[in-house]
Amino acid sequence: MPSELAKLRPTMLEWYIQRIADAKHTKAIGWLGERIVMELIPRDRFIVYQPKHRKDGDLHITDRRTGVLARVEIKFARRNSRGKFEFRLRKHDKHGDTDISHADFVIFVCFWQSLFTFYFVPVKQLPGNSKTIPFDDRNSEMRSYRLPSLSRLELPMGVHHA
Q: What pTM value is reported for the model?
C-alpha cells in the first residue's frame, strides 16, 4: 500500500474503500473520490478547498510556495467489464452535469483491489469534445501523467495566481 495511504487512519481508509466497493451510484463514487484526493494532498505544501460554485471545479488547489492556483476536476473510476477504467468527462442529463472544460487539470483516480493510481492531466491534453475517456496503464499517452502518489503533485507556473 503506498505510504501516503498509510498516513490515513486505517479505519478511515477502510471506510472509504468499503463505500467505494459498495457504491452503485456514480455520484456516490465521485463524492468518495473527491474526499480521498482531499485527504491525500499534502497540506503542508497545498491549500485545498472546494469552491463555492461547482462550475469552478471540484477542488481549488493552491501551492503555498509559489501561489499558483489550479482549478481541478476529480474523476474516479473502477475497472469496467472490459478491464479498463472509463472516465466521464462531459455529461448533461436529468441526473446531473459534469464538464471538465472549466478546469485547468483533471486528477484521474483509478481504483482496483483496494489500491489507487493517480494521473494529473492538463485539460488541454484531453480530447476536445469526447464525453468519456477509457484508459489503463498500458495507455502510453496517459502513462506520462501518472503520479506515484499525490505527495509528488506539482502545479506548473503559468496556471493562475491566488
A: 0.78
